[in-house]
Amino acid sequence: MCVGLLVSSAIWGAAAESKPQKNYAVGQVTLADGRPLTGDIDDIVLTVRGVSEAGSKVSYSPVVKAGLFKQKLVPGQYYFDTGKIKMMFNQTLLMFDLVPIGKSWNKNRDAEDGIVQDFVWKPTGQKETYGRPADPNNATHWHGLSVGMRFQIFRSHTNQAPPLLPVGTTLFFTLKPTSKSIDGRALTSWTIERAWRPNDITPNDDLNDLPIATYELTGVAQLPDGTSRPILFQGRGHYPNFVKQAAVLVEVDSSLGGLWKQMIGWVTE
After folding, report:
1. Sign of the C-alpha dihedral computed for residues 191, 192, 198 and 199 taken in this order
2. Which one of 5, 11, 31, 267 is most buried, counting C-beta atoms within 10 A?
């Protein structure tokens, strides 16, 4: 395990200029902006598969050291599987897909020509949507942490329906970090604005593409007449009560892999 993996700019500059090498697969793994990987990295898993000139199926799992890899290949045709990065966060092991650079990563390439294949890790940012516009309310379109916000039509602690919010209400959700992000960055508090859409099929807007960290969540509803109402939350362990502050957690989805989408119900006073 390597904590806060960093390499010198001289080494990284050389890697960025790597050239195809006969009968080798080479490349680098970086953050999306080209910076070296940071955070508590447990492992990086890359797999090169192919068929040798002798007709045998061949696979390699190159060692990635300081973000760089170089794998000798027997003559043949090769392609890459999707790469994975395993990260530790608060003593929990999480695994994420790496994003391959270019369109040739899963196509056959000749080892004799030399194969260069780079990957990036995106803790946040847009996923491939195959020509469709990315929807800020669709968690599957984003790499970051997602919190499912669900307006509750019944207040379990009072046995009453919550006050109705008029059309034109704006919701403000404030996230105060209680940890660094998974890639080791210090975060500051910020507020996400959402429109209240009671007449739409899906009126509840999730909070998507958050930097992967833990947070304290608070909120307020701003009504069209200029008045406001505090937002109350019902997360794990709160039922039947609603509270003014909820904890946003980072958890692994053991069935599907990746991050668990935490569901938090809310009402207003």
Report:
1. positive
2. 267
What CA dihedral angle connects 181, 186, 190 and 194, to 10 degrees?
A: -20
What integer pLDDT is reported at residue 203 of this predicted model? 54
pLDDT of 5: 33
Residue 70 dihedral angles phi and psi, to the nearest 5°: -150, 115
SS3 content of the chain, % helix, strand, coil (to 5): 5, 40, 50
- Specify the pLDDT at position 17: 55
Q: Long-range contacts of range 135-140, CB-CB < 8 Å, 24 or more positions apart? A: 136/208, 136/209, 137/202, 137/205, 137/206, 137/208, 138/208, 139/206, 139/208, 139/261
Residue count of the chain, please give it.
269
**pLDDT for res 157:** 73
- pLDDT attached to residue 140: 84
**What gap in Å lies between CA 59 and CA 54, rounded to an integer?**
14
Give which of 78, 80, 153 is closest to 111, Cα–Cα: 78
pLDDT of residue 155: 77
What pLDDT, on the 0 to 100 scale, is given for residue 206?
A: 87
Check if the beta carbon of residue 246 is closer than 8 Å to that of residue 264: yes
Domains contained in the chain, CATH given = 2-121 (2.60.40), 139-268 (2.60.40)
DSSP secondary structure string for all residues of 183-219: TS-----EEEEEE--TTSSS----EEEE-SS-EEEEE
Enumerate residues 6+ apart whose C-beta is below 8 A from 46: 29, 61, 62, 64, 69, 80, 81, 83, 98, 119
State which residues of the chain have pLDDT below 50. Answer: 1-15
CA distance 40 to 214: 16
Rounded alpha-carbon distances, angstroms, from residue 136 to 124, 141, 220: 12, 8, 20
